């Protein structure tokens, strides 16, 4: 089976490196910057691919999906990896298009930061388009499992709401926590592991963060509304019991995720 990867940054580079390391796929990369074996800037190299991953920034992905119609056949399966799914789900293409989102990443970007183990144990969301071919989806799922991830199927709408809660809002909170102490020298001196861990998402890739905030604003605002209610309830009466319940929930949440 021949696999193509467009955009060899953190996500695309990690897919490319992992698939190559498996030795069972022919892998070609399309890149504007990477010089490596089986990588070029020529989209015609994708013409024989069975599956193509588009791993470019969200702001250019629609343009690349359009461009791909010239280079691949109707039989080709194309999956994007964008952090939002609604905006890529509006159009139909001549090829089989399957929106997807690997729930894996680091604060780094680019080919040099990519590594084959990135998707080991991660969830990988698929938001199938209505009327799409089940066989094409099964093929993509098998490939994603070879990358080390497990599949979660949902809708684009539900996905975009959920990532506002677990990714986009926490990133903005991490940024705001840093902003909040920028003039407080003592707080900066005392900031230790708790503050460091809580603010890790402030290191997120700036282009990706900007795209998320711009393109998922409505869901992010809804997430902040529910958070405000949660904070109000938490700071009401019976804080110790609530804190205990939350601790148990937090422990169970990640244990469950590791086992499923
Ligand atoms: P990245 O490391 O910056 O890689 C993006 C790559 O896209 C660049 O290295 C470049 O590759 C190519 N590219 C950049 N600008 C382009 C343009 N104007 N036209 C065409 N190609 C361009 O970013 P990433 O973190 O891998 O993110 C890629 C996608 O994955 C995004 O859609 C993001 O939402 C999604 N995602 C990211 C994460 C995360 O945590 N980082 C997690 C899940 C999903 P070449 O130099 O090879 O052309």
Characterization of this structure:
The protein is of the alpha/beta class and 260 residues long. Helix content is 48%, strand content 13%. The chain has 9 helices and 9 strands. Helix 2 links the parallel strand 4 and strand 5 (77-80). The longest helix has 25 residues, at 156-180. The radius of gyration is 20 Å and the shape is globular. The two termini are 28 Å apart. The model has no long low-confidence stretch (mean pLDDT 96). NADP nicotinamide-adenine-dinucleotide phosphate is lined by residues 7-12, 31-34, 55-58, 60-61, 81-83, 101-102, 105, 109-110, 205, 208.
Q: Which structural class should the secondary elements be placed in?
A: alpha/beta
Distance between the termini: 28 Å
> What is the mean predicted local confidence, pLDDT?
96
Number of strands: 9
Biggest β-sheet description: 6 strands, parallel
What form results from the Cα inertia axes?
Answer: globular
Quaternary structure of the protein: single chain
Strand order in the sheet with the most strands? 3-2-1-4-5-6
Q: What is the alpha-carbon Rg in Å?
A: 20 Å
Tally of helical segments: 9
In percent terms, what proportion of residues is strand?
5-15%
The distinct bound ligands, ions and cofactors come out as: NADP nicotinamide-adenine-dinucleotide phosphate
Poorly predicted residue ranges = none
User: What proportion of the residues is helical, as a percent range?
Assistant: 40-55%
Written as H for each helix and E for each strand, in order along the chain, the element string is EHEEEHEEEEHEHHHHHH
